[in-house]
Amino acid sequence: MVTAADSVPVPVGIVIGALGSGIIGIIGYRFIHVLNRIGTWVLGIGIVLGFGYILTHVQTADFLTRGSFNIAGVLATVSLAALWQIAFAPYVSDYSRYLPEDVPVAATFWTTYLGSALGSSLSFIFGAVAVLATPVGMDTMDAVKLATGSIGPLMLVLSLITLVQTFAYRWIPTAKSRAILSVIVLAACCFAAVGASADFIGHFVDMVLVLLVVLVPWTAINLIDFYAIHKGQYDIDSIFQVDGGIYGRYNPQALLAYAIGIAVQIPFMNTPLYVGPISAHINGADLSWVVGLLVTSPLYWWLASRDSAYKRRLAGGRLASTA
Predict the structure, then answer these.
(1) Is 233 within a domain?
(2) CA 86/CA 95 separation, integer angstroms
(3) Cα-atom radius of gyration of the chain, to the nearest Å?
(4) Is 220 in contact with 297 (CB distance < 8 Å)?
(5) By the number of CB atoms within 10 A of the CB, which of 80, 147, 182, 260 ranks highest?
(6) 165 closest CA partner among 45, 35, 38, 13
(7) Is the pTM of this model over 0.85?
(8) What percent of the chain has pLDDT over 70?
C-alpha cells in the first residue's frame, strides 16, 4: 500500500491493511474461498502481465549477469521455500479427512504439494526478476514499484488477499467468536508490525528463519508418525476424546524428540538473535533446519517404535474397535 501511494505513511498502511484483513476474517471462511477462486485467475494473469512489463522495462545493464553463487544465499533461499511448504502441512491433514476413503494418500500429497510448490515458485521467481531489473541497493518496496509500474498496486492488493486466505484456519466459530478473535490477533500483529516498520521486510524475513527452528522438528515428527509409525491409520475417535483415547493426553516420545530436535540446531543457527559457533566457521551458512530434520526424523522413529507401553495401548484400541 505504501508502494502504491507515496503519501501513505508506513504505519498507516499497516493499520489499513490489518483492517482489511480483519474484515475478511470476520466475514468468514466461505468468503475467503470466494476471494481465493477469483484471486487465482486475477493474480495469475497479473503475474504474467508483470513479467511482460518487467522484461520490457529493465532498468539495469547487468540484468543477466548480476550476483554469484554462494552456499549461504542458496541455503537461505531453500530455507524460505521449505518454511512455505511446511506452512501448508495442516492443509493436507485438514482437507484430506473429508475426502472419500478410496482416495489414495499419494494423490492427496501430490495435489497439495504441486499446487503450493508451483504457485509459490512462480511468485519467488517473479520477485527475483523484479530485483534484478532494478538498480543495486534500492529499497525492496521501491524496487517492486519501479519494476512493476502501474500494475504494482493491483498486484500488491491481490497478494494481500492471497496471504489472508492462505493462512486462514479451517475453524468455523460463531460470528461473535470470529470477530473477537480476529480483532485480538490482528491488533497484536498490527502493533508488532508498526513497531518494526522501519525495516519491516528485514524483520519479517528474520522471524521466518527463526520459525524454521521450531517448525522443522514438528513437521518431521508428524510425517514419521503418519507414514512410518501408524502407516496412515489413526483411531479418529481417540483424537476427539478429551483424554486422547488410546494415544493418551500427550506423546512423551514426540516431546523428547522435539526438544532434542530444537537443541541440536543451536550450534548451526545463523539468525539476528544468535549465530552458532559452527555457522560462524562455514561462511555464515545456516544449516540448522537441515540438521534438525536429519536428527529428529530417525530419533522419533526409534523412540516411538520401541515404546512397548504405547504399542500396548494401540493394540488394545484396535482390539476394542474390532470387537
Answers:
(1) yes
(2) 16
(3) 23
(4) yes
(5) 147
(6) 35
(7) no
(8) 62
Backbone angles phi, psi at 63, to 5 degrees: -55, -40
Structural domain including 103 reads 1-195
Residues 89, 222: contact at Cβ < 8 Å?
Answer: yes
Residues 99 and 223: their CA atoms lie apart, in Å, by: 19
Are 191 and 213 in the same domain?
Answer: no
Residue 154 has pLDDT above 50, yes or no: yes
Are the C-beta atoms of residues 160 and 25 closer than 8 Å to each other? Answer: no
Q: Are 162 and 189 within one domain?
A: yes
What backbone phi and psi angles, to 5 degrees, belong to 275?
-120, 115
Q: Which residues are bridge partners to 275 per DSSP?
A: 270
CA–CA separation, 154 and 123 (whole Å): 15
Q: How far, in Å, CA of 80 to CA of 73, rounded?
A: 11
**Who's near 122: CB < 8 A, 6+ residues apart?**
47
Of 195, 223, 247, the position where a domain reaches its end is 195
Per DSSP, 221 falls in state: H
pLDDT tens digits along 190-226: 676 666 555 666 666 677 777 788 888 988 998 898 8
Within its chain, how far is the Cα of 281 from the centroid?
29
Is the model's pLDDT at 140 over the cut of 60?
no
Give me the residue label for grid cell 471462511.
Answer: 29
| 1: its cell numbers | 500500500
